[in-house]
Inverse folding.
């Protein structure tokens, strides 16, 4: 089974996402993008509905920059650690 990220649940931040460092093969990385992820609350500024744990401009789901985590399936060994440890329950093994 492969990990699949649910962007609707992911409030990724380079500094708060612990699964990036936990991945044994380095298959998970963080990227910044210019457009918001579909269904993100762009005005959240880390309200309780956000869950990303950051504040202001460093918020992964609002502010001036947008971010997400991505999985390099060529590196992924399908161990499931990311799904187990994701603080936002945003990764499912499918």
């Amino acid at each position: 089974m492969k990990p699949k990220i649910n962007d609707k649940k992911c409030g990724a931040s380079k500094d708060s996402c612990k699964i990036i460092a936990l991945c044994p093969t380095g298959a998970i990385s963080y990227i910044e993008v210019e457009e918001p992820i579909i269904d993100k609350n762009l005005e959240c500024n880390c309200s309780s509905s956000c869950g990303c744990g950051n504040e202001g401009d460093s918020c992964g789901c609002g502010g001036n920059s947008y971010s997400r985590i991505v999985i390099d399936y060529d590196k992924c060994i399908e161990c499931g650690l990311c799904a187990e440890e994701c603080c936002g329950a945003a990764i499912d093994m499918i």
About this structure: The chain has two helices and four strands. The first helix runs from residue 19 to 22.
